[in-house]
Amino acid sequence: MSILRMQAVKAETGHKSHASIYTAIKRGLFVKPVPIGERSVGWPDYEIKAINEARIAGQSEAQIKELVNRLHAKRIELVQA
Fold first, then answer.
1. Where are the beta strands (DSSP E) in 1-81?
2. CA distance linking residue 36 with residue 70, whole number of Å
3. What global pTM score does this model have?
4. What distances in angstroms separate CA 13 from CA 20, 44, 60, 81, one per listed residue?
5. Which has more confidence, 77 or 61?
6. What would the pLDDT profile of 32-54 be if each residue is shown by its tens digit?
7. What's the confidence (pLDDT) of residue 24?
8. Considering only Cβ atoms within 10 Å of each terminal Cβ, which end of the chain, N or C, has fewer?
């Protein structure tokens, strides 16, 4: 697994700006970033891939929101394991 920084996330997803990603996070359509330093964040690559695959498959917003919830739950499981 690798952690993608903002520029890589924008390139992978097609988002044009930081604001569009953070808007999607607020709407529950994108995963929250993880802290990787005192003032830096990133996103696990497998989470970005899963969201992209769902979008390509034509899943609804409700389905993508559920996916985001599952991905966040998986983070918690990984930490507790």
1. 3-4, 34-35, 41-44
2. 21
3. 0.91
4. 11, 13, 17, 30
5. 61
6. 999 999 999 999 999 999 999 99
7. 97
8. C
Q: Is the pLDDT of residue 81 over 80?
A: no
How far is 36 from 17, CA to CA, in rounded Å? 20
End-to-end CA distance of the chain: 16
Q: How many domains does the chain fold into?
A: 1
Among the listed residues 26, 29, 17, the one whose alpha carbon sits nearest the alpha carbon of residue 67: 29
What b/e sequence results for 27-49 when a residue is b if at least 16 CB atoms lie within 10 Å of its CB, and e otherwise?
eebbbebeeeeeeeebbbeebbe
Domain span including residue 20: 3-80
| 66: CATH | 1.10.1660
Q: Which two tokens stand for residue 76?
A: 């918690």
Sign of CA dihedral 27, 13, 76, 32: negative
